[in-house]
Write a structure and sequence with these properties.
Strand content: 15-25%
Number of domains: 1
Strand order of the largest sheet: 1-10-9-6-2-3-5
CATH architecture: 3-Layer(aba) Sandwich
Number of strands: 10
CATH topology: Rossmann fold
Number of helices: 8
Length: about 240
Amino acid sequence: MKISDLHLPDHVHLRTFVSREALTLDLTELIEKQLNKAINSRGKATLALSGGTTPVPLFNRLSHTLLPWQQITITLVDDRWISPDEPDSNEYLLRTQLLQHHASKARFIPLWQANMTAEVAEKSCQIQLQQITDPIDIVVLGMGNDGHTASLFPDAPEFPSALHNKMDCVAINPAQAPYARMSLTPARLLNSKQRILHIVGEDKLATLAKALTCSAEVMPIHLFLQHPLIIYWAP
């Protein structure tokens, strides 16, 4: 599929790059600019990030970026409900790939809570996330080939109610993907100033094309395509 085959709404902007390295450089610069802008405006900034392999180069570059990290709060878009000592944990990913070097000074709000199920932890997770009182400055989303984003899986029994949940987080139990999850709700993700969809590979273009014609109940990323969004893509 070609980029030109995508018919995106006017409020969705697509930025394409010849390489993933070029994408990482440009996205790092955008995030740096937006965080500095927020700090200059109100003395603090917030950043919500996704896991997976795609953002690892971004995390590594950001960790070496000279920012006033002590004024920046970072949280996760979602996490698997496993110990942050395990490599499949998104918290583990952030602690080992981003919260290093200069970025080690950032404040981190985890989703995972010890010694409780995701369902039981919803309340304490909500309390943690309420430390972020403003709209999140930047949310960086990913997307699976099934159209899920964050841990908003359409096959999860909690998903229909999650679409209308006004809280910050929700426990999710996907039918096909491993592990219970905690995810920021669509309401909290949309309560943000800048949303970025960071994807790579030709297959993701076909997923986007399908998502534009499906409902959010079928492909959750559709919901975010109905709101202002910047898509970063490289082959």
